[in-house]
């Protein structure tokens, strides 16, 4: 099973032929800029489309801390994502409360563990919208 940096490497090497389909759902590679180092950091994340936008969840398995990729995009919301062989520049933002109310069940439909993760932490788990840039 692909996971972590091995997942990123195989995904990038094969333009998503390996790694886009994962455990019954789909994965993109999100690249953020490190808030302390300025280095590019790539993370495999479950995603779904919402119109032209991409939606991801900053669950971190229900940890009380936000994942590093989320902390990075809070410092610099300009990101790159890759879906299969397509690379897209995007701007990341948190879903509004209204958007989250609609998008959380939409995401949990393909990854029911999100509900379990939220039950494990008092931290409101962010739903992140990645808006493609022209």
UniProtKB/TrEMBL annotation:
Catalyses:
oxidized coenzyme F420-(gamma-L-Glu)(n) + a quinol + H(+) = reduced coenzyme F420-(gamma-L-Glu)(n) + a quinone
A GO-annotated cellular component: plasma membrane
GO terms (molecular function) for this protein are: coenzyme F420 binding; oxidoreductase activity
What InterPro entries would the database entry show?
A: F420H2_quin_Rdtase, Split_barrel_FMN-bd
**Protein family according to the UniProt entry:** Belongs to the F420H(2)-dependent quinone reductase family.
UniProt protein name: Nitroreductase family deazaflavin-dependent oxidoreductase
Organism source for this protein?
Halostreptopolyspora alba
Which lineage do the record's taxonomy fields give for this organism? Answer: Bacteria, Bacillati, Actinomycetota, Actinomycetes, Streptosporangiales
């Amino acid at each position: 099973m692909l996971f972590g940096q091995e997942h990123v490497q195989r995904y990038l090497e094969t333009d998503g032929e390996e790694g886009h389909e994962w455990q019954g759902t789909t994965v993109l590679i999100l690249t953020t800029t490190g808030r302390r180092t300025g280095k590019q950091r790539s993370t495999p994340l479950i995603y779904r489309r919402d119109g032209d936008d991409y939606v991801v969840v900053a669950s971190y398995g229900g940890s009380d801390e936000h994942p590093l990729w989320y902390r990075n995009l809070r410092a610099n919301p300009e990101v790159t994502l890759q879906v299969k062989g397509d690379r897209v520049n995007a701007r990341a933002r948190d879903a509004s409360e209204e958007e989250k109310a609609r998008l959380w069940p939409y995401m949990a439909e393909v990854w029911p563990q999100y509900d379990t993760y939220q039950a494990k932490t008092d931290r409101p788990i962010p739903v992140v919208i990645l808006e493609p840039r022209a």
